[in-house]
Amino acid sequence: MIQVFTTGGTIDKVYFDAKSDYQVGPPEIEHILAGVNAAPRVVIETLMRKDSLDMTDEDRAIIRSAVAASTASRVLITHGTDTMVETGQALREIEGKTIVLVGSLSPARFRGSDAEFNIGFALAAVQLLPAGVYVAMNGRVFDIESVRKNRAANRFEPVSARLEGED
Q1: Which CATH superfamily does the domain covering 2-158 fall into?
Q2: Is 121 in contact with 87 (CB distance < 8 Å)?
């Protein structure tokens, strides 16, 4: 069994015309997995529906407690990309579990979103990786100790990579 915790982020965002704004909507992962007839048994629990820029240390403590209390040894967390690394680092002391954080750079409801690919990739990663905390985004897996989001390039990369725009 794979435990899935949803926390919000761009992957679950919905556009409201009346507000001309994006809001975090209900989790999309259940629809994504059903739509591709995913075979692994997953249990999905929503912990929160927040943009990751609005996440606090208290929110990370809630996520950490839920992951630590789960009986599953394999945990997938949908999360906003802006603070995914910070949340992953808050989980790094949990032993004996494979924890994979995943999100998307555009809402799952949008045509051409990277959400479906990222979810499928992360679902495979959580089943194959050894215990530890990882980010799985856009066909790459990163150990939580050596990853960052390059906001200028809108991608995740190893910490050792040079940021675009740096001299």
Answers
A1: L-asparaginase, N-terminal domain (3.40.50.1170)
A2: no
